[in-house]
Amino acid sequence: MGLQRRKWLFVVLMITLMIPVLGVFAQDATAEVTTEPVWPDLGGKEITIAVENAYPPYNAIVDGKGVGWDYDAFTAICQLINCVPKFTEVAWDGMLLGISNGQYDIAADGITYTAERDKTVDFSQLYQAYDETLLIRDNDTRFTTSDELKKLPKFLVATQIGTTNEITAKALFGEANVKSFDTFGAAIEALKNDDADAVVVDRPAAEGYIEAQGGLKTLPESLNGIEGLAFAFPPGSKLVNPVNAAMSALQASGAWDEIYAKWFKPAAK
Length: 269
Hints:
Elements: H1 3-34, E1 45-51, E2 54-55, E3 59-62, E4 65-67, H2 69-81, E5 83-89, H3 92-100, E6 106-107, E7 122-123, E8 128-137, H4 146-150, E9 157-160, H5 164-173, E10 178-181, H6 184-192, E11 198-202, H7 203-213, E12 216-218, E13 226-229, E14 232-233, H8 240-253, H9 255-263
Parallel strand pairs: 1-5, 1-6, 9-10, 9-11
Antiparallel strand pairs: 2-3, 3-4, 7-14, 8-11, 8-12, 8-13
Helix pairs in contact: 2-8
């Protein structure tokens, strides 16, 4: 076989071997174009959002209207992912059960993420870090720490039933010294009426009650370290990723901090 013919066959062979490779590159290039992330669009879908309407500054009824951080946050979220928020008043003691059974699309209400709760509901990404505190009457000078409170004779700590605050209260002060109420509003009333010495509550909520009602203060002590809040969804909900995407976009734009600063002090960092 002549030299020129061998060269020609070599070139043909190389081209033949390269065709599948070039085809793969072409497919990869096409895949990159066709798999670009698509921004979630819920098509104007109405989503039910469970709130207690008794947990300021997250949610409350003022002049007959629902207001609070939850309302503003989900209004902003739905503007981004094209949904309509329908806020539904639900008692706290049945809220997570209702979510796990699919009665509501989302539960707001300042819910603490825990591994135990994660077994029955799905959660969004965390949106706020906080600690638990003691809320007391602003003229009470008998104690400044939880240890000093425990030295008082026949002291009583109030909180809300079925919350992580109830777990903390019973762990720190003993079940005999804790009285749990259906709502935090009732626990606050017990405190203001001298029927309780303190209320175990999340610090952001404590600050909300201080602003709304006055005559109260928090102690600097952190009762159980830093925890995180998240929205809850029925197991397997397809709303988790769109809501997370909207939350991230609002945080990146600074709009999230603006909403936070409206309802909490100091503003988010």
